[in-house]
Amino acid sequence: MATYVLLPGFWLGAWAWRPVADDLRGRGHDVHSLSLTGMGERAHLARPDTDLETHITDVLNLIRYEDLHDVVLVGHSYAGAVVAPSVADRMPDRISRLVFIDSGPLPDGMSHLEFSPPEERSRDAELVRTEGDGWRLPPPPWRQLASEVSGLPDDTLERLVRLSAPQPWATATTPVRLTGAWEKLPRLHVLCSFPVAEVRARIGVVPAFRHMATEGSAYRELPGWHWPMFDRPGELAAILHDAA
Questions:
Q1: Per-position DSSP letters for the chain, written without gaps between them
Q2: pLDDT (average), residues 139-151
């Protein structure tokens, strides 16, 4: 039996992990899915000052108060890029492995926003200004994004549209602060929207990818949507089971 902590990316809460979490529990594992502050059932707690540090504290407190050890810490997208490595950097003795779902750790001093192309940054900033009261990023047009995704059940898409919450913008703009303690931990990258070959091609030329080049990193390809917990939950759960 392994202990998993599952962290969702932008706009999502613990609910997004339900099929994966149920599968892992069925295999005998201890699974903790977490809604970060302002997301999921904790959407009412969102504030303009909800930032990356808030979300890091959410995870540190879960591990501390549930007395979790040898944790397989799984982060999707935003949570993989900045939350998971930050938690592991501060509590490396409690983490056994990091798993990045279609994501990778960003270097010290870089924010999640800086990973996006300039035109995407400008577009999102405008959405925050015009539709998010100046501090929230609205969820994307899920039905449009999912229009070419095969194998996505209608009820899953309906839940995605209904349960997604605006993302506090400060979580995207806060730079990550790392000491390097997390780098000793083994890592698995589950790649969905881009292949291993593309990652390896970018490692030497794009600074944001440099942490994906270490000897402790392994890769698994799971081609499909950027959100594999929705279109390929069983296969994702099997990969996570193997990772333990």
A1: --EEEEE--TT--GGGGHHHHHHHHHTT-EEEE-PPTTSGGGGGG--TT--HHHHHHHHHHHHHHTT--SEEEEEETHIIIIIHHHHHHH-GGGEEEEEEES--PPPTT-BSGGGS-HHHHHHHHHHHHHHSTTTEEPPP-HHHHTTT-TT--HHHHHHHHHH--PEETHHHHSBP---SGGGGS-EEEEESSS-HHHHHHHHTT-GGGGGGSSTTEEEEE--S-S-HHHHSHHHHHHHHHHH-
A2: 91
pTM of the model: 0.95
Q: 142 pLDDT exceeds 70?
A: yes
List 33, 35, 77, 111, catalytic entry = 77
Q: Is residue 35 annotated as part of the catalytic site, yes or no? A: no
Q: Bridge partners of 6? A: 33, 74
167 backbone dihedrals φ, ψ, rounded to 5°: -90, 125
